Amino acid sequence: MAEKIKPPRMRLPRKVEQDGVFKVKVRFDHPSFTGLGMADPDGEQFNRATPSRFIRNMLVYYGDDLVSRFRMSSAIADDPLFTFKLKAVKEAPVRIVFVDNEGDRWESSADVKFKT
Amino acid sequence: MMNIEGNLSRRRFLRYAMVGGVAVPMYASTVLGNDARATIRLPADPDALTDLERLHIPKVTLPPVVEDGAQAPVVVEMDHPMEDDHYIKSVQILNFDDPIVIKGKFYFTPVNGEVYLGTQIRLNGGEGRVWVIAECNQHGRWAASRDVKVAAGGC
After folding, report:
1. d(Cα B83, Cα B146) in Å, to the nearest integer?
2. Residues on chain B bordering chain A, Cβ-to-Cβ distance under 8 angstroms
3. CA angle, B91 then B97 then B100, to 5°
4. Residue from B89, B85, B131, B135 nearest B108 by CA
5. Which of A83, A88, B72, B74 is a Cys-bridge partner for A16, taking CB atoms 3.0 to 4.6 Å apart?
6. Is A42 domain-assigned?
C-alpha cells in the first residue's frame, strides 16, 4: 500500500495522426482505504473500522473541454493505472485532474501534437 | 426470509435501495421484454449476438482467478461508434457480492473516439460476479458480466 502520494504521471504518444484515436495512460500513486473491517470472526459482515481515503474523481480536459470523468468509490485499487482513449481532434493539452474524498487535488498535463 | 423491520440501519437501507435499483430493472428486462429505455438489457443468446447487441454489450476482460483482490485488473472495450448523435455515455463497474458494490462510473463523450477503459479495482475474497453496464444515448443500458474467484480479498 502506498504511504506517500506522488503527483500523477501521464503518458501519451509523442505525435498522433489528426483525427486518429490514441491511448492515454495515467498512473496516480494514491492510497485507497475502504475503511472496512471484519465485524465478526467468520468474516461475513463488515463494519466501518477506520476512515476511508480514496480517489473520488478523475476529470479529463482536452484543451478547455471536459471530455471524460471517472467517479470512483473506495473500491478502486491503490496506486491505480487508468487507460482510456481520445480522438485527436486538435493540438491542445490533455489535462487530468484528480480529486480525492478529502477534497485534495492533483493534476498532470501533456500536449497532443499531430504528425506532420 | 430476512426480517429487516426495526433493524434497518442507514447503510443497510442504502444497500437494499442500490441493489434493488439495478436488480429490479435487470429482472424486468428479462421478464417483461426489452422495450423500456430504463431497463438494462442482457444478450438473449450470448453465443449468437444480434448486430445491436454486438455494438452495445461491453467486452470485459478480467482474469477468472485473481490472486490479490486489492489489485484486480479490469478492461472494458466496445465497438460502438462515438458520434455526436450516437455514443456511449457511461460505463459502470459493479459487484453485488462485495461490501462496496459500485466500483466506479466512467463518463464518455464523442471526443473519446472509442470506448476503452482499463483500471484496477478491489474485490472481496471468494466467488463473485463483476457486472459492467454501458449506457448508449439512443439505446439505453446494456450489461455484461464475468465470474471471478478471488484468492485474497481486497476490501
Report:
1. 28
2. 70-72, 75, 82, 98-100, 102-123, 154-155
3. 65
4. B89
5. A88
6. no
* Chain A positions touching chain B (beta carbons under 8 Å): 21, 23, 32, 34, 36, 46, 62, 65, 67-78, 80-87, 89
Number of domains in chain A: 1
Give ipTM to 2 decimals.
0.88
Q: What does pTM read for this prediction? A: 0.81
Cell digits of residue A97: 485532474
- Residues B5-19: tens digit of each pLDDT: 445 566 666 666 666
- Which residues of chain A have a CB within 8 Å of the CB of B107? 68-71
Distance from B87 to chain A by nearest Cα, in Å?
13
Q: Which strands sit side by side in the sheet containing A9-11, from one edge to the other? A: A9-11, A21-27, A81-87, B115-121, B72-78, B59-61
Query: Tell me, what CATH number does A53's domain have?
Result: 2.60.40.10
DSSP SS3 for B54: helix
Parent domain of A101: 9-36+48-108
Domain spanning B40-152: CATH 2.60.40.730? yes
